[in-house]
From TrEMBL:
<dbReference type="InterPro" id="IPR001810">
    <property type="entry name" value="F-box_dom"/>
</dbReference>
<feature type="region of interest" description="Disordered">
    <location>
        <begin position="18"/>
        <end position="46"/>
    </location>
</feature>
<feature type="domain" description="F-box">
    <location>
        <begin position="51"/>
        <end position="100"/>
    </location>
</feature>
<dbReference type="InterPro" id="IPR036047">
    <property type="entry name" value="F-box-like_dom_sf"/>
</dbReference>
<dbReference type="Pfam" id="PF12937">
    <property type="entry name" value="F-box-like"/>
</dbReference>
<protein>
    <recommendedName>
        <fullName>F-box domain-containing protein</fullName>
    </recommendedName>
</protein>
Length: 348
């Protein structure tokens, strides 16, 4: 079997660095410089080969292009190659992310304690902050971080466990629950010992402990407490704005997907009627919502194609035959059935 060919990268590596000397060039190997054809395994050429010429564009053209993109697109470019990664993540290019953020309707301004790059990554990249696990959809806005269920217990204190480390610093910090004003708390609930409530961010607590140790005098520590409470209020204010925007964005996305699913259901019904199963569909009446709408192969947020409909029809044929027999026999339509387990509802 011939060796797998690798993409040529040497031809792009000096372009961005030539235009912007502050960006170091990416490393390359000697083998990559000798390869003339960009192919994937099996001899297939890459899709969209025009992207290979994008790094060769003048720097002002690139800036105009990036400024018109969505932050999610910029994140994709960051992961595409080392040159774009170094260019877009350079501190001097925060203005590119700022212009891209303006393309997102209703998105709050970047908090002063975050960079535009970090803000975009937090809002649009579903990765755990610690282990980079994918599909972490929930953002802990008081902490401005995403954590998967595996990493979360290691980066938090709860109501029971926060008292001991703070007492080791100074027992006056926990007097009358004064520590609640010193840290950003997730799900603050008075008197609850649940692990889902009253969660404190361990990095924030550890940073405060280091600053407390550096403040030797009483006046310095009083000043630290004042600054810490001001920082917490500022973060809570921005967290509230971001959480409201993120919730609205999620709901808007849900509405769009629901509309696509409903269109797929009605397209399926229309095609079933065209195949001659119209009397059975009308016979089901309102019960069809439980026999058609809740099927996982129908209730999908994708447009119905002829090929997908043929698969649905093949699976539905036994039930359609039974419904036709019952309808011709004068039996009433089956009533709606509620299942205890979702797997029973979706069983074919």
């Amino acid at each position: 079997m011939p060796p797998r060919k690798k993409a040529k990268t040497a031809e792009y590596q000096t372009t961005i660095a030539d235009h912007w000397p502050g960006v170091p060039p990416a490393r390359s190997s000697d083998k990559a410089e000798d390869i003339q054809v960009t192919q994937r395994r099996g001899g297939r050429r890459r899709k969209n080969p025009w992207l290979k010429d994008l790094p060769n564009l003048p720097i002002d053209v690139l800036i105009e292009i990036f400024g018109c993109l969505h932050p999610k697109d910029l994140l994709s470019f960051v992961r595409s190659c080392k040159d774009f990664c170094r260019f877009l993540l350079h501190p001097k290019h925060d203005f590119i992310w700022r212009e891209a953020r303006k393309q997102v309707e209703g998105m709050p301004d970047c908090p002063p304690f975050l960079s535009e790059r970090a803000y975009a990554h937090l809002a649009f990249s579903w990765h755990c902050r610690t282990c980079a696990r994918k599909n972490v959809r929930d953002v802990l806005w008081p902490w401005f971080a995403r954590y998967c269920s595996t990493c979360l217990p290691d980066v938090r204190y709860i109501r029971k466990t926060i008292v001991a480390p703070l007492n080791d610093i100074d027992k006056s910090l926990t007097k009358d629950d004064g520590h609640y004003s010193l840290f950003n708390v997730v799900n603050p609930t008075e008197g609850s010992n649940s692990a889902k409530c009253n969660q404190f961010h361990r990095p924030q607590v550890d940073q405060f402990a280091r600053e407390w140790a550096e403040a030797k005098t009483k006046n310095a520590r009083n000043e630290l407490l004042k600054k810490q409470r001001a920082r917490v209020k500022e973060r809570d204010h921005h967290a509230e704005l971001c959480a409201e925007w993120y919730s609205n964005k999620t709901m808007d996305r849900y509405v769009v997907l629901e509309r696509v699913r409903l269109e797929r259901v009605w397209d399926t019904i229309d095609k079933l009627k065209a195949e001659g199963w119209g009397p059975e569909i009308e016979w089901l009446d309102w019960s069809r919502a439980y026999y058609l709408d809740n099927r996982p192969d129908i209730w999908q947020a994708t447009k119905l194609t002829d090929r997908a409909f043929q698969k649905i029809l093949t699976r539905l044929l036994p039930e359609l035959d039974e419904w036709r027999k019952d309808r011709l026999a004068g039996k009433p339509a089956p009533s709606a059935i509620y299942y205890r387990h979702p797997s029973e509802r979706y069983r074919f």
